[in-house]
Design brief:
CATH superfamily of chain A: Thiamin diphosphate (ThDP)-binding fold, Pyr/PP domains
Number of strands of chain B: 16
Strand order of the largest sheet of chain A: 1-2-3-7-6
Radius of gyration of chain B: 19 Å
Number of helices of chain B: 13
Number of domains of chain A: 1
Oligomer: heterodimer
Number of helices of chain A: 11
Helix content of chain A: 25-40%
CATH topology of the largest domain in chain B: Rossmann fold
Largest sheet of chain B: 7 strands, mixed
Shape of chain B: globular
Distance between the termini of chain B: 28 Å
Number of domains of chain B: 2
Order of helices and strands of chain A: HHHHEHHEHEEEHHEHEH
CATH class of chain A: Alpha Beta
């Protein structure tokens, strides 16, 4: 018996031009991007350390979006505490210097439109230089509007953007490890709550529970908002936690802005056997920017320059 | 019509007109889906990272053979074609070579968004088997007789599309698509159709094979229509027309060189497929001809309509998917060629 070997990562077929976009040098200086030291990932990091990282992630989201002049603000800001905990609280096993190492834990952002928070987190973890964040959504940037695996950006395991699809891919990664590779790696996935309206989510949930994918953990960003309005005004998704429970998931309901609750939930997921876990994380879209907080109108737009200044002032150290 | 009523059942030998090409004869009848099932087992025997996702109809698309042999590498995914395709993507991104098979109606049509974003945009090494292709599905009727997936899958970047002509080629093609790296779709049928290729008949992904030499017209066919084209070519000898028959088993990427050589040497083309005429094999060939050498062309296929229930042979006649229709199209195109000179 032998294995069919083929190249998977990094794929760089999406590069269509002669050069990558050049980030604005004035902004690199203004944001001190060249003197930045990445945050460390450790179980021993305090909640305060993770909160500092979350704040820096939020600043970077604002900085990249205002420069991009398009993109999604609300979801990325709201999920920053979860992302900081995943990457800096010792939850995920990864190495930014060896991003495609065997046995790494996988992260899939099923709600692909929240890409700015993923890029900001990866940059803060040292997967890329921070100045690259200023190329978001620009021609030939590795930071596509929605994550594109074809750009070869370290840390991007799969393209996502058509809602409902990332979770199924993540389930496939979990299946591959649990039953075939057996490397004991875990797969983490984040979905939006509006995304729960897509049928593939519930197909994939049924699949993950059937195959007892206890190495698989989905977190629902429960901000009650989507682009057209609040969930119940567009399409009711409640009772969210009960639905996941009924589909066979171990379900944990938490405050998605409490780093200690997020850490405890991920620890509980790790210790859960024979079942996949779903963490329903209550968050506020646009949190904690006062003029964005819990306002669905910030789902799909970037701040303008003035709004960005205000937001960055609120996020000052 | 008197001379053109001979059907598959009455013609069992197709002689070569010269010594260049092998002689194709009817070796029996067997559905291409069995070739897919057997090819998959051969592949599984050789490579231990080949895995299969079952879509409930495993006994119809013959992934049941793999399940019996390798239960540890077979994962039932119920009746959820979209998620099976997404899971296959996750498996492929983890270094496995996943095959997922269902009816083409679901594997391609229901699944288009998954194939586009998750499989092809990711360039994931996912293999899709699309069964129950074409009108020859028979009594199940229009819902299950998929006539659109050549069009749907061939527009997807990174996708490779294979339509084997008979059981033996389906077996070879399935093995080859497993060793091939990249997203690939194989189209196969439910009903027993003529077997006429042998183990040593050449097959290569991306290469169209000339099955019969001739210089008056070239019939480019895929799937079970290749046999019909061979039958038609023998009948046409009586009318003094010497037709080349090309088995276009890979529709994407299309073997432009073989198609353009045929256009140059024969000066007229007929396409034949068990699929909508629009955007299928004929459409793919027409795109190449228009750009390089626009010779007269006629299309044999389903003309912008849905199928229906019936016996497969009756349906193929009703929808004009036999040697009879190919002969008519050839005569028409040869006339057009003569008048355009």
């Amino acid at each position: 018996m032998s294995e069919l070997k083929f190249h998977i990562y990094p794929l760089e077929t999406g590069f269509h031009g002669a050069t990558r976009p050049i980030p604005n040098p004035d902004l690199i200086a203004k944001y001190n991007y060249t003197s930045f030291t990445p945050f460390k990932n450790s179980k021993d990091n305090s909640d305060d350390y993770i909160a500092v990282a979350a704040k820096e992630i939020r600043r970077d989201i604002i900085r990249s979006l205002v420069e991009a002049k398009s993109g999604h603000s609300g979801g990325p800001l709201g999920i920053a505490d979860v992302m900081a905990t995943l990457y800096f609280g010792g939850v995920m096993n990864y190495d930014p210097k060896n991003p495609w190492m065997d046995g790494r834990d996988r992260f899939v952002l099923s709600a692909g439109h929240m890409a700015p928070v993923l890029y900001a987190t990866l940059a803060n973890a040292g997967f890329m230089e921070k100045k690259e964040l200023l190329t978001l959504r620009k021609l030939n940037s590795r930071l596509q509007g929605h994550p594109g695996r074809d750009m070869g950006l370290p840390g991007i395991e799969t393209s996502t953007g058509s809602l409902g699809q990332g979770m199924g891919i993540a389930a496939g990664m979990a299946l591959a490890d649990k039953y075939v590779s057996k490397n004991n790696h875990r797969v983490y996935c984040i979905t939006g709550d509006g995304e729960l309206q897509e049928g593939e989510i519930w197909e994939s949930a049924m699949f993950a529970a059937h195959w007892k994918l206890d190495n698989f953990c989905v977190l629902v960003d429960r901000n009650h908002c989507q682009i057209d309005g609040r969930n119940p005004d567009v399409m009711e998704v409640d009772p969210v936690a009960d639905k996941w429970k009924a589909f066979g998931f171990h379900t944990i309901h938490i405050n998605g802005h409490s780093i200690s609750e997020i850490r405890a939930a991920y620890e509980e997921a790790r210790n859960t056997k024979e079942k996949p876990t779903c963490i329903v994380a209550e968050t506020y879209m646009g949190h904690p920017i006062t003029f964005m907080n819990d306002d669905y109108r910030w789902h799909g737009k970037p701040p303008n320059k003035e709004q960005a200044e205000l937001a960055l002032a609120e996020l000052a150290e | 019509m008197e001379t053109t009523t001979k059907s598959i059942a009455t013609i069992d030998k197709v002689a070569s007109t010269n010594g260049m090409t092998p002689k194709y004869e009817l070796l029996g009848k067997k559905a291409t889906r069995f070739g897919f099932g057997e090819g998959l087992v051969t592949l599984g025997e050789k490579y231990d990272n080949v895995v299969v996702l079952g879509g409930d109809i495993t006994g119809s698309v013959m992934t049941s053979y793999f399940q019996e042999k390798f239960p540890d590498r077979f994962f039932s995914s119920g009746i959820m074609e979209a998620t099976a395709t997404l899971v296959a993507t996750g498996l492929a991104l983890s270094g496995k070579v996943p095959f997922f098979a269902s009816y083409g109606a679901f594997a391609a049509c229901r699944n288009t968004d998954m194939l586009r974003i998750s499989v092809c945009y990711n360039d994931a090494n996912v293999k899709i088997g699309g069964g129950h292709a074409g009108i020859s599905v028979g009594p199940d009727g229009a819902t299950h007789q998929v006539l659109e997936e050549i069009a749907i899958t061939r527009v997807l970047p990174n996708m490779t599309l294979i339509v084997p002509c008979d059981f033996t080629e389906a077996k070879k093609a399935t093995f080859a698509m497993g060793e091939f790296v990249g997203p690939a779709y194989i189209r196969f049928g439910r009903t027993d159709t003529p077997m006429f290729t042998k183990d040593d008949t050449p097959f290569e992904i991306g290469k169209a094979q000339v099955f019969r030499e001739g210089n008056d017209v070239a019939i480019c066919a895929c799937g079970p229509m290749v046999w019909e084209a061979l039958v038609a070519a023998e009948e046409l000898v009586k009318d003094g027309i010497n037709a080349r028959v090309i088995n276009v088993s890979t529709i994407k990427p299309l073997d432009n060189a073989t198609i353009l050589a045929a256009a140059k040497e024969c000066g007229a083309i007929v396409s034949a497929e068990e699929h909508q005429i629009t955007a299928g094999l004929g459409g793919a060939i027409a795109e190449v001809l228009v750009k390089n050498n626009p010779v007269p062309m006629e299309f044999v296929g389903v003309n912008d309509t849905f199928g229906g229930s019936g016996d497969p042979d009756e349906l193929m006649k009703l929808f004009g998917l036999t040697s009879v229709t190919i002969i008519e199209a050839v005569k028409k195109v040869v006339k057009r060629k003569a008048s355009s000179k």
